[in-house]
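Long-time lurker, first post. I've been practising inverse folding by hand and with some scripts of my own, and I keep getting stuck on stretches where the structure tokens seem ambiguous. Below is the full token string for one chain I'm working on. Before anyone asks, I'm not after the true native sequence, just a reasonable design that respects the backbone. If someone could post their per-position residues I'd love to compare against what I wrote down in my notebook.
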């Protein structure tokens, strides 16, 4: 289960999802939400920025337990977006880290006794109807994840390429094949 808030995590747990099947993804995580996620022992926290990584590291240290993390890479908008644009951004995406920050965050996570880097998350776009564009985004994300993990020195165990699978909204749009 991918959750974007403490409320989403609590709802998933109430619905019977085990903590080990929850990944906390989303910008703007508050310290109390991160603390609750750490206490619950969720599968991973997707970290959006170097600042969030530092906050999570402090929370994990105070809890006395390592926290599995995915590092979120900002996307360049290279995945073509269709008529319905749910994520509006030009250039580097508004969520996640640029490549230098991403690589530095990976090194910091490896050096920390309180963080356990699992891999990378990169969300390309919403409502993509082009299968080749989705495949290209997935391949580029996996390649970046391999490079970051190799350079930082951790085993790559998880790559999340985000969603983005589209449906036609307008007349004449072909469904995703």
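-- Answer (accepted) --
I ran through it position by position. Result:
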């Amino acid at each position: 289960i991918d959750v974007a808030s403490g409320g989403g995590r609590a709802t998933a747990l109430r619905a019977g999802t085990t903590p080990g099947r929850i990944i906390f993804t989303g910008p703007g995580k508050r310290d109390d939400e991160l603390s609750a996620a750490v206490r619950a022992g969720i599968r991973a926290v997707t970290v959006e920025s170097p600042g969030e990584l530092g906050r999570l590291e402090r929370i994990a240290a105070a809890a006395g337990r390592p926290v599995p993390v995915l590092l979120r890479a900002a996307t360049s908008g290279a995945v073509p977006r269709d008529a319905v644009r749910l994520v509006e951004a030009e250039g580097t995406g508004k969520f996640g880290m640029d490549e230098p920050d991403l690589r530095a965050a990976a090194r910091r996570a490896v050096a920390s006794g309180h963080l356990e880097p699992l891999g990378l998350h990169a969300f390309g776009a919403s409502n993509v109807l082009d299968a080749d564009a989705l495949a290209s985004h997935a391949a580029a994300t996996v390649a970046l994840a391999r490079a970051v993990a190799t350079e930082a020195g951790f085993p790559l165990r998880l790559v999340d390429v985000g969603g983005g699978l589209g449906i036609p909204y307008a007349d004449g749009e072909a469904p995703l094949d």
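A couple of notes from the structure itself: The chain is about 40% helix and 15% strand. The first helix runs from residue 6 to 14. Happy to go over any region you disagree with.
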